[in-house]
Write a structure and sequence with these properties.
alpha+beta; Jelly Rolls; four-stranded antiparallel beta sheet
């Protein structure tokens, strides 16, 4: 997705606002039996916390591109990856068989890259085109389609098939950062109004 018209200044609210509130995040991935899915610094940031209204503007552009209303989005999840840090393969949608019934489901994800990464840190889709889809897949591997982070670029992908089930090819993760630092803002979009977004 092209964020034409925003320019480099849009990065500042994402990094300056949450920097003091960054904390170590560890997520357990039930489906993959990977105990530590991610160990990175992160926090949440809503458009209401940004006095410049840059985040609100970006949310508007995302809504226009996806045709998903702005109020269906969760707060931005701001993540910082340092050298060696990664995010094991996972789904953004929640499988009811593992997480229980869902009142609302994540249908799409928008990743906004806030920095360049000198080496590593690619967003990867191991099951793209149906490859690597076997029971022996190692969720820690960095394989498949890989997208290199570049400041100002956006990556949009959908998590559900038209019948409402999880699209297996939406499995994704982040390769380890080898050199430099990776900053990314993730916006999860749901199928219903997200009342707790602000």
């Amino acid at each position: 997705m092209d964020l034409e018209g925003i320019g480099g200044y849009f990065v500042e609210p994402f990094i300056s606002c949450p920097k003091q509130g960054l904390k170590l995040e560890t997520t357990s991935c039930i489906f993959s039996q990977v105990r530590d899915c991610r160990t990175i610094s992160g926090t949440f940031l809503s458009a209401s916390e940004d006095s410049t209204e840059t985040l609100k503007y970006i949310e508007g552009k995302i809504a226009k591109a996806t045709m998903i209303p702005r109020d269906h989005g969760e707060a931005f999840n701001i993540l910082r990856y340092e050298i060696g840090q990664k995010y094991a393969s996972h789904y953004d949608s929640f499988d009811p068989s593992e997480y229980g019934p869902q009142k609302s489901q994540r249908v799409a994800s928008f990743l906004l890259y806030l920095s360049d990464v000198e080496e590593g840190g690619e967003t990867m889709f191991p099951f793209e085109n149906g490859s690597n889809m076997d029971t022996n897949y190692d969720y820690q591997k960095c394989i498949g389609l890989r997208v290199k982070p570049q400041q100002g670029d956006g990556l949009l992908f959908y998590s559900l098939l038209t019948n409402g089930t999880i699209d297996p090819t939406s499995l994704h993760g982040s390769c380890p950062v080898i050199k430099g630092e990776k900053w990314v803002a993730t916006k999860w979009l749901r199928d219903t109004n997200n009342k707790n977004r602000i």
